[in-house]
Amino acid sequence: MPTPVPPRVPGEVRILALGGPTTEDASNESGVHWPLALECLLEERGRPDVRVLNAGMSAYTTAHSLVRYQLDLVHTEPDVVLVMHNINDLTVTYYAAATGQQVDPNYLVKYGRREYTGLVDESDVVLSRLLHFFATRLLPPATDLLPPERWRPYDLEDGARLFERNLRWLVLAIRSSGATPVLLTMPRSDDPGVVDATRRLVNSPGVSLLPEAHAFFADFDRFNDVVRSVGAAEGVPVADMARALPTRPDLFLDVVHYSTEGSREFGRRLADESRHWLPPSSGTVLDTKTKAPCEGVF
pTM for this one? Predict the structure, then answer.
């Protein structure tokens, strides 16, 4: 998101991307995120009237995006709002199980904690976005997690119901603002070895936060099914990126975060999908000085 956000100009088609770290897409060193790739591709394909604003934020869930949209981002006056959530909402369920608690409607079991919601300080000004991302967003201290044998058995449907509720409220909030909501399913790696490596990375000695690969894949896919079902029930376009993006290893840094090439390929596939929800061209050509530069993106 540029600061300040450029004012709308007549004929501009403004797209806002909402989500967590897989939308912010800050985990590769090149600075190429898929909303940027999408804008550059659309311009290349004859849509210089389109501006894409990346409002994704690491660690955010549907609950965070709902609040932020209504209190802040609605003032950016988008025409289309792309919403992609899954992994952070899903891990609320895991965090509850690993701390012997139940999932609560406000996600406080995970997010009512200093590790996830602490104030930004000078440690956020760093040279390596990748290193800082993993250190403070994906891998916060988890000293209160339980050994796997002491996990509370979790009912995934408790979390899925809250996820569905929040998605429906997001759709309502976006529509109420006059914009078109578009829901995105979230791609993942299908390599169990990648999941095992991620588990070793995020699990502290003797404790655990992620289940084994087969369970994680099933849970993750269940949350993508919620996205599809909400889209169908609400009559909202769904860009099924989980099925559109190849699962090649070179496209992923870990289980869900994209490499630079993964971000580019995501942008390509989403640009192809955009014919289903992108408003017609206005013929306006936006001033390139107010848009992110596309040099080096592809």
Answer: 0.88
